[in-house]
């Protein structure tokens, strides 16, 4: 199960008046973190760079970094799921259109495979027309 994560920053030296939220996005090439692709310190580099020059960030219509006051958090009934992740809309096609797209993609892939196999057989000097 994919679990979205926000990083919360608190200052224990005084009463909390505001809290920064920062959304740590998946690094390029990662769908999620796992045993074989664990989270590493380098993945925090964007957040650490941002920390020294904090400003609100909105990416693709979603908050990536934002400051909230205690009052704003209380008004949300203390729900701290505040920096959302962009969601891809899933398009559900009618069956006929879905099948047509599949056939077009399959034909395109078959053409690519045939072209590559022709190059390989030419390089190897193999004539597939011979019996």
From TrEMBL:
Its EC number is 2.1.1.72. GO terms for molecular function: DNA binding; N-methyltransferase activity; site-specific DNA-methyltransferase (adenine-specific) activity. It catalyses: a 2'-deoxyadenosine in DNA + S-adenosyl-L-methionine = an N(6)-methyl-2'-deoxyadenosine in DNA + S-adenosyl-L-homocysteine + H(+). Gene3D superfamilies: Vaccinia Virus protein VP39. One of its GO terms (biological process) is methylation. Residues 1-90 form the DNA methylase adenine-specific domain. The keyword S-adenosyl-L-methionine applies. Keywords: Methyltransferase, Restriction system, S-adenosyl-L-methionine, Transferase. InterPro entries: DNA_Adenine_Mtase (IPR051537), DNA_methylase_A-5 (IPR003356), SAM-dependent_MTases_sf (IPR029063). Pfam families: N6_Mtase (PF02384). PANTHER family: SLR6095 PROTEIN, TYPE I RESTRICTION ENZYME ECOKI METHYLASE SUBUNIT. This is site-specific DNA-methyltransferase (adenine-specific).
